[in-house]
User: Fold this.
Amino acid sequence: MWRRILSTTSASARHHFVRSSNNTNTNTNTITNLTINRFLLTSSTSNVSNPFQTTAPLFSQQSASASASASVGKLRVEDVMPIATGHEKEELVASLQGRDLLEMNHPAGPFGTKEAPAIVQSVYDKRIVGCPGGEGEDEHDVVWFWLEKGKTHECPVCTQHFKLEVVGPGGPPDGHGDDHH
Assistant:
């Protein structure tokens, strides 16, 4: 909001200065341009504090070099975020190793047929999948369904076939076996 006010003020001030200086000679125009620049500089660096301060990126060059020297050349999760646990820690470890832990969340590939179904990766034995259809005119509203290990699923709208490929430890997504019911 403050930037918008400052830019509006700066634009109206520039218009006012330029309009008032149109009837003067060249030396006055030069002085007016200097005045405009000085006014814009002071108005853009006013004492109004911005409530939204930008923060440094998580893996900035400074933090990487500082923590690398502390841990003798190898960056650890504890150096980046000491309180990271669970899935957040797994994501940080993967990003420090240069791989994307969640690359399986955006599957892309050819249209799945019965002979060659579209492969969707999962860490668990089943996963919710959304089918947007084919490209162009074959697109449809996203249809959501459960995709299970060992079974193919056919989209009821576009007849695209999907198959689940387990790339992790497997098991049910809720962490409980089905035998506890």
